Request: fold
Amino acid sequence: MKTALITGACINTGVDIVKKFASEGYDVIFTGRNMEKVHAKEKEYREEFPNVNIWGYHIDSLLDERTVDEESVEKMFAEIDAKGMFVDTVILNAADQGLGMTIFENPLTDLMRVINTNVVWNFCIVEHASKRMIKNGGGNVVFINSNTAYRAIPDRIAYVASKGGQLGLMRALALDLGKYNIRVNAVLPGMIKTDRWDKNPEFYAKVPSRFTPIGDVAVGEDIADAAYYFAAHARNTTGAELVIDGGNTIQLYPIVPEK
Ligand SMILES: NC(=O)c1ccc[n+]([C@@H]2O[C@H](COP(=O)([O-])OP(=O)(O)OC[C@H]3O[C@@H](n4cnc5c(N)ncnc54)[C@H](OP(=O)(O)O)[C@@H]3O)[C@@H](O)[C@H]2O)c1
Reply:
């Protein structure tokens, strides 16, 4: 039985990733920060997918803005070991979105918080997962990155920096872990429809990311399919990027619809 660890999977894209892997017969361990939400989601997933094992784990990346909670990652993997489970696939979906961050207003600790979650914590998870993968003959890691790793967006300084850093981390890990039969790849979404669309429909009706060759943005299932491709099919692929942004980043200027 294959087992995927999927981070940040109580809401939005993470939910679609859990559903994709569970529907393909994977056992799933997913994370969220809030114990009650994790338990509620675990119940929901188990009802929808009675034929696979689904286990929710509540974990926060940080002790404080400056400090990644490495001990909790160790504890999570020790508990997974104690259950006799082996995580052969890690999908790093959780992210601090670092919304509304401007150069002169925010304290340095805001930058630290976002980089610590999106880069350092993810490294820590891969470190602990890959030790087990080596013993078990290999595995694979998929980062849910962002096309902002290449093209910046306004007021998201820490997020953009973190996604660029994350992509460098992905390549370095792919290089160092390949010899252990561990593949490491990244999905680069553009904009994804999430519950934030429902909360702010006017803003999202006008978002420039819609002005792409395809003319629309991704849904969570698109990202889940790409993550599943890397995990389950891409036997000879490592250090690769799959951009899911409707062609947004290949343009010199946005294609603005006439109406
Ligand atoms: N949405 C987009 O338009 C878009 C575009 C490009 C790339 N992406 C990337 O795609 C992925 C999913 O995006 P999304 O919009 O679905 O994400 P989201 O709705 O913001 O959810 C993020 C998840 O990350 C978890 N998380 C946040 N801070 C955390 C922390 N300090 N420790 C542990 N977990 C933490 C959250 O946990 P809780 O449930 O506990 O809050 C949540 O489950 C992210 O990596 C994002 O950067 C998204």
Summary: Strands lie at 3-6, 27-32, 54-58, 62-64, 67-68, 89-92, 139-144, 182-189, 241-244. The two ends are 50 Å apart (CA to CA).
